[in-house]
Amino acid sequence: MKQIFIAAFCCLNMTHVEAQGYVNVMTFNIRYDNAGDSLNSWQYTKDNAVSQILFHKVHLLGVQEALYNQLGDLIAGLKFYKYAGVGRADGKQKGEFPAILYDTTRLRLIHSETFWLAEHPNIAGEKGWDAAIERIVTWAKFQDKKTKKFFYHFNTHFDHIGKIARRESARLLLQRVKEIGGNAHCIITGDFNSMPSDEPIEVMTNKSHPDHLFDTKEAIRYAGLCLQKLSLVTKIDAGYKMRIEQSAIERIKRLK
Fold first, then answer.
1. How far apart are CA 86 and CA 104, in angstroms?
2. Pairing mode, if any, of strands 60-64 and 100-103?
3. Of 188, 184, 130, whose CA–CA distance to 162 is shortest?
């Protein structure tokens, strides 16, 4: 029987999960480093962020709103982790990163790139449609050292103001997942600034599109399980096991 497994971390025995070869995936909007947040600012929350990642034994992490200094803090606290990604403002270190962090003891990075969610996706710093600020997608190709299988991870953060930008970003992301990932397993994490019933999610999950993504609640029903939070998946098939943890303000999209 084909099977998909997505659940809260607290519901599973971690030793059993690791024995079964699962890759633990998390999406995490860490909130940009803003001194105005007072006691909730990064200097007071960074240790908790690191501890949560370590506690859940995350192999693959898509972050949103991370600034360059925050990535440095995360990597400093996560001994065996590295990251892939660039700042959205200049394609280097300026602006927020939707970076991908990965556990180097489990995953091997093969290649990584970034494109802008805009009419000209390859122009660094391009702001698209009616977006208030630059928005990007960072993607990476990995090999699982345990299973030797290859897969792709796409991580993003859609605009919070531009309604057209969110819709067109969904269309572009869907197109690029197919172009880059082909028929491989693809995980897509992100803060889509959308509710499950909003147009961007509909664009990506519309079954009339040949490359549509699956709402993981639907995928879970296929496997005879249940899921409360919205996730999206590239396809439902046998062969690769992943587990997803999702925070309340984010939407996760992933592959099985």
1. 19
2. antiparallel
3. 130
Q: Please give the order of strands across the beta sheet that includes 23-29.
A: 81-84, 100-103, 60-64, 23-29, 242-246
Amino acid found at 105? T
Residue 23: CA count within 13 A, CB half-sphere: 33
3-state secondary structure of 47: helix
| Two tokens, residue 90 | 């200049």
Q: Going residue by residue through the chain (256 aa), what tens digit of pLDDT does each one get?
A: 222 222 222 222 233 344 456 788 888 999 999 999 999 999 999 999 999 999 989 999 999 999 999 999 999 999 999 999 999 999 999 999 999 999 999 999 999 999 999 999 999 999 999 999 999 999 999 999 999 999 999 999 999 999 999 999 999 999 999 999 998 888 888 899 988 889 998 999 888 988 888 765 565 554 443 333 334 545 443 344 455 444 433 333 333 3
Between CA 142 and CA 181 the distance in angstroms is 11
Nearest of 196, 212, 202 to residue 251 by alpha carbon = 196
The β-bridge relationship of strands 60-64 and 81-84 is unpaired
CA atoms in the 13 A half-sphere facing the CB of 80: 12
Instruction: Give residue for tokens 């990251």.
Output: 83
What is the DSSP pairing of strand 242-246 with strand 23-29? parallel
Cα–Cα–Cα angle for 146, 187, 81, rounded to 5 degrees: 55
C-alpha 50/C-alpha 31 separation (Å) is 14
**In the chain, what is the straight-line distance between the N-terminal and C-terminal CA atoms, in Å?**
14
